[in-house]
Amino acid sequence: MIEIAGTKMALNDPVVLVAGGIVTLILLLLFMSLRASNRSARMAEPLARQMAHLGQHVQQLGQGQEQLRGGLQHVSDTQANAQVQVIQTVESRLSSVQQQMNDRLADNAMKSARALAEMQERMKESLHGSSKQTATSLTQLQERLAAIDKAQDNITKLSGDVLSLQDILSNKQTRGAFGEIQLNDIVSKALPSDSFQLQATLSNGRRADCLINLPNPPGPIVIDSKFPLEAYEALIGSTNDMELKAAVQMFRTTVRKHITDISQKYILDGETADGALMFLPSEAVYAELHAKFPELVQESFSKRVWIVSPTTCMATLNTMRAILKDARMREQAGAIRKELGMLHKDVERLEDRVSNLDRHFGQAAKDISDIKISAEKAGRRAQRLDNFDFEELAPGDHTNVVPLGKTEG
């Protein structure tokens, strides 16, 4: 039982139970509110501290803004002063540069005036020298014109000589003689005089223009210089296709016949080499033959007739000279071997005599050594004889006398 305001109530009374529950709930809510307020107070403390810090920062920012305003004012004043100083410096430098420019312009004007005066003087001297050179050049030009007139006379004379040479080459006999002379000149320059024969007669009665005496093999080789130039002159002088065709046919027939004649006349078994040379006195004919008639060149190869021009003939003759030199060296090889054998015998004989002389020198050296030994002994004996004391000796005292021919001890 409980009593409230004079009213007694049982503990199990529902009203008491509900009122107790409400009171308990109110107390619980009050307790929870207190705990929540304490927690809110604790949570608000850091926020209050942050707000205080933020207020301090705001105050510092205001102070910094004031300082920045003062700094900007100072910078503005400094910049204005600097601009004034720069303007003053630039004005002073501009005035200095202007003064220097004026001075330099005046100096350049003076230099230009002097240079102009010098140039005028040089031009006067140059014009004077040019007039002298012009006079000299005119004199030289007159001399050269005189020389040209003289050369013109020589050309006229040379043209006459060329015409005479053309007349010579138009004749078959004189042209053959000209080819032989040209061949003779080339051969005489390339080979020794005893290695070739001009106008040599072969066993068949044919006369070769030049016979080169090469050793076997290959043996003596013939060079023929009688090349027919009429067909070539007709070839280069043709004016239309018909003349050209006829000239080509005549040139081919003439050259083929000349190759055959050389092969039959100048290639003799057992007497000459297995081939012969056909000499062309003109490089133009040689080039024309190889350029437009290769079948004739091949035919000459098959008939062992070698076609040469003045240039290729010189090269061929130089090769022949090497062959002749090699052959002569082979001929002299026996004599060289014989001389080497005799030289070897002379060397052996010299070795024997040197050995005998060395033996004699050894004996003489031994004799000289013996003579020196004997001379040394004789000298020692003479020295001992010189040291003898010839005072009188007591009778029977012979102990200090050393007989001659014997040594002490």
From TrEMBL:
Report keywords, A-Z: Coiled coil, DNA recombination, Membrane, Transmembrane, Transmembrane helix
| Stored Pfam families | RmuC (PF02646)
Record-level GO BP terms: DNA recombination
- Any transmembrane segments, and where? 15-34
InterPro entries annotated for this entry?
A: DNA_recombination_RmuC
Q: Does the keyword Transmembrane helix apply?
A: yes
Q: Does Transmembrane appear among the keywords?
A: yes
Q: What job does the chain carry out?
A: Involved in DNA recombination.
Q: Which PANTHER family does the protein's record reference?
A: DNA RECOMBINATION PROTEIN RMUC
Family stated for the protein in its record:
Belongs to the RmuC family.
> What name does UniProt use for this protein?
DNA recombination protein RmuC homolog
